[in-house]
Amino acid sequence: MERLLEFIRRHLSLILFVFFETVALALTVENNLNIRAYYLGITDGLRSFLYTKIFNIQNYFSLADENRQLLQAYVKLISIIENKKNLPDGEIKEDSVFVFAEAQIVKKTTGLQNNYFIINRGKKDGIEPESAVVSPGGVVGFITNVSGHFSTGLLIINKINGFSAKIKNSQYFGSITWDGKDYRIVQLNEIPNHVKVSIGDTVVTSGYDLIFPPDWPVGEIIDVKKNSDDNFYTIWVRLFEDLKKTTNVIVVKYKYKGELTDLENKIFEITGNVK
Amino acid sequence: MELRHWIKYLVFWVVLFLLQIGVFDNMNLGGWGFKPQVLVLFLLLLPFEASTPVILFLAFVTGLLYDSFNASMALNTSAFLVVALMRNFLLKSLEPRNGYEVNTRPSAIYYGLTWFLIYAGISLLFYELIFNILDLFSWTMFFRILVKTIVNTLLSLFFVVLLHWFFLKNRV
């Protein structure tokens, strides 16, 4: 007995190794599903907790890619929906009125008086000047210059160019401008002061500027003031889109824009208005 | 070893374990799924005084837990046990001429990077060899076993050395 203990003491490492290794190998080659299930069941709770709660972090690595894919799918769908609106009996024609393309903002400013952005799509991708740039939740800006692979444009928070917008479910439209103070808040002008306007109303694009597609969400009304010197309101609108965060955008091209501006210019010749 | 040290080791173990299952196991590079194995670092850095039975026991528990997370049955456990068994032999054969100093641990901080690379490299090589043989287990896979073993060893070695510096800077 003493010699056995002595033997065990001397070769404890090896004995333990053989024992553990046998268990391990038995588990490895064990095809019995019940044992496998039991074995996995021991740590199941902890495992699922770790994988669902903590390792959700992993998703962030693929988030950029997924966003792009989602946007692509969205663009496909929205182009179907938007173009359906403009067609009788919901038929989708090959030559749609609006052409949608997804893009990413590679550079932008929000702290200036005339804020601009650059997107990673250009002439090669069919982008043209005066195309609208929107996001699924709001409006972003419009293209001003196009190069081979990139385009620059003004964000809607600029003091050069406004755009046409209206209060949802009303036919009164005005123009959106920016006072250069808060990048989240723009002003809607030229709404006559007999119209009923209430705080919380949604403002959407009108489409009359021939840049933005009609009825695209812009923001909600947070303040209204009657002007004393004319018969219009000044309306403060909080943008739906946080332009500081926006990276994934959609470029919208109005297909018959050239045709329409030609016609418009003819009117200008008669009326003497300048655009 | 004092209790304080064991608690530090426990924290070290948990961090390594989470890193392994959360980050490194998800790497799966290339078509054959190369991935680094850094959990072995825990066995490598145990103090010199740790006896082989203790190391074997720790390897067994760690291996089973890790395997249950990977649903890989006990493949890793087998490989861990081999590394655990050979650790003290390996340390003995790599012993510097004037022996290991007291109050040091088998790390590059005390015995240099070259020494550690050899120590960790041999351990990881055995680990990967055992693991891949058991995992693929067929002569037709000979080439694949060889490539996976070598690539995984180098990959693991890189991360092990990196993590080793990081942890030992904080005196684990």
Please supply descriptive tags for the structure shown above.
heterodimer; A: 275 residues; alpha+beta; six-stranded antiparallel β-barrel; six-stranded antiparallel beta barrel; elongated; B: 172 residues; mainly alpha; 7 helices; 69% helix; 0% strand; globular
Can you give me a brief rundown of this structure?
The complex is a heterodimer of chains A (275) and B (172). Chain A is built from 6 helices and 12 strands.
Structural summary, described in words:
Chain A is of the alpha+beta class and 275 residues long. Chain A is 33% helix and 29% strand. The radius of gyration of chain A is 31 Å and the shape is elongated. Chain A has a six-stranded antiparallel barrel with strand order 1-2-5-4-3-12. A six-stranded antiparallel barrel of chain A has the order 6-7-8-11-10-9. Chain A contains six helices and twelve strands. Chain A starts with a helix and ends with a helix. Chain B is an all-alpha fold and 172 residues long. Chain B has helices spanning 3-22, 40-44, 52-70, 75-93, 108-111, 113-136, 142-169. In chain B, α3 (52-70) runs antiparallel to α4. Chain B is globular, with a radius of gyration of 16 Å. The chains are: A alpha+beta (275), B mainly alpha (172). Chain A binds chain B through residues 12-14, 16-17, 20-21, 23-28, 30, 36, 39-40, 42-43, 47, 50, 54-55, 57-58, and chain B through 18, 21-22, 26, 51-53, 56-57, 59-60, 63-65, 67-69, 71, 73-75, 77-78, 81-82, 84-85, 88, 134.
Low-confidence stretches of chain B: none
Structural shape of chain A: elongated
Number of helices of chain B: 7
Biggest interface reads: A-B, 25 and 29 residues
Strand fraction of chain A equals: 25-35%
How many individual helices of chain A?
6
What string gives the helices and strands of chain A in order?
A: HHHHHEEEEEEEEEEEEH
Question: Structural class of the helices, strands and pairings of chain A?
Answer: alpha+beta
Oligomer classification: heterodimer
Compute the number of strand runs of chain B: 0
Give the helix level of chain A as a range of percent: 25-40%
Shape of chain B: globular
Given the helix and strand composition of chain B, which structural class is it? mainly alpha
Q: Any idea what the radius of gyration of chain A is?
A: 31 Å
Cα-atom radius of gyration of chain B: 16 Å
- Unreliable runs of chain A, pLDDT <50, ≥5 residues? 89-94
Distance between the termini of chain A: 109 Å
- The ordered H/E elements of chain B are HHHHHHH
Overall mean pLDDT of chain B stands at 84
Could you describe the largest sheet of chain B, including whether it forms a barrel?
none
Number of strands of chain A: 12
